[in-house]
Design brief:
InterPro entries: FAD-bd (IPR002938), FAD/NAD-bd_sf (IPR036188), RIFMO-like (IPR050641). Keywords: FAD, Flavoprotein. This is FAD-binding domain-containing protein. It comes from Streptomyces mordarskii. This protein is mainly alpha-helical. The chain has a domain of 94 residues. 58% of the residues lie in helices and 6% in strands. The strands form two sheets. The protein has a two-stranded antiparallel ribbon. Strands 2-3 form a two-stranded antiparallel ribbon. A hairpin with a 2-residue loop joins strand 2 and strand 3. The longest helix has 26 residues.
Amino acid sequence: MKTRGEISSKQLVPLRSVVHDPMSHGRLYLLGDAAHIVPPMSAKGMNLALHDADVFAKAVIRQVEEQDASLLDTYSSTCLRHVWNYQAFAAWFTDLMHDSGDASYQGEFRRQIARAEFDRLYASESANRLFSEFLTGLN
């Protein structure tokens, strides 16, 4: 019988990424998690959803006020450039975090590579600036 707080096994939960391309079909438009899912490690799900909503709102306003559907026509491609940029960041950051910890995940070699990458993030002004831009959503 397990006592309180006892853990019987340890495992990494697979994190999934999903991107629906295109993010629209006819007059149906997908936004946020309906269109794409990023691993929570990168903390970008809400940011991407808000970006989608901003792009979509501007497109709808232009359609209603000016009868110009050009922004609605390019909604998916506009959002997907942003989505794929952050999917790439999320995949890299998730792997980096998992690899840098317990060597039993991907082995000691991957652990040391991940540790070297973390060191670079703090030692290199350029790497730190890019990492900060991704974390804050400025990239």
